[in-house]
Amino acid sequence: MNDELLYADTLGAGCHWSLLMPRGHLLRLTDVQGGANVGMLLYNPLDHLERLNIPDTLKCQHTFRLTAGHCLYSDMGRVFCSIARDDFGWHDSVCGTCDRALVESRWGRLTYQQARNGMHRNGRDGFLVELAKHGMGKRDLAANLNWFSRVSADAQGNLRLAGKAPAGASVELCFEMDTLVVMHAAPHPLDVAQAYPARPVRYEILATPRSSADDPRVLARAENSRGLLNNRLYLAGCSAAGCGGH
Q: Residue 4 forms beta bridges with which residues?
């Protein structure tokens, strides 16, 4: 069966947004022009204390990079989603997000009054604006992902932005539980481009018959099978309690 497109829009350069991704749906992100960065946080909409846990995501899958076949874990050992498809092959999980001081020091201050939608935005403020819409704030910030940004380390452990995605590259996330997605299209914190890197990103929401448990790349990691079992136990409890599980 084919995936059914339910909604599509473009996240403008530097802009931010949040949305509820239902279980059994797919989120496709596409780098429209090339060179984009998408910062992302994930939360359980029924319990905001359950959120994306980058250290657990990496250590249980024995990886530093994220690509197709990997799962994104909550700090309760459950799988928010898996990476179902990936054109780029390497996405940053350790560098965090840019803040106002970094953006101003690197590219200067450019406000809405000066440049309207061409203003210089930063990822931290973008996250905080979106979190506020859901009753959250600074204490709810966590380590984030950076889609379409490849980071490498030298022999001394110094990190650098080693690559950006080409125009048209996309990544697809298959959701295994209802998830609040918070994202921005602000620059990667290690980006040293001469001009503020303003790149839009298209996002699409699709209803899909697929499941992470149908992907042999996901099940190739024993921990992912356990994570998906944790999901089934959680969803069974939610259904019995009438708390919104599907």
A: 207
Q: Are 146 and 8 in contact (CB under 8 A)?
A: no
- What is the per-residue burial (b if ≥16 Cβ within 10 Å, else e) of 95-105? bbbbeeebbee
* pLDDT tens string 82-93: 999 999 999 999
Q: What is the number of H-type helices and E-type strands within the chain?
A: 6, 13
What global pTM score does this model have?
Answer: 0.94
Q: Are 80 and 176 spatial neighbours (Cβ–Cβ below 8 Å)?
A: yes
The residue ranges of every structural domain in the chain are: 4-241
Q: For residues 124 and 184, what is the distance between their CA atoms, to the nearest angstrom?
A: 9
Query: Side-chain half-sphere of 137: how many Cα atoms within 13 Å?
Result: 1
The tokens for 80 are 């928010």
> In Å, how far from its chain's centre is CA 94?
12
Contact (Cβ atoms closer than 8 angstroms) between residue 47 and residue 203: no
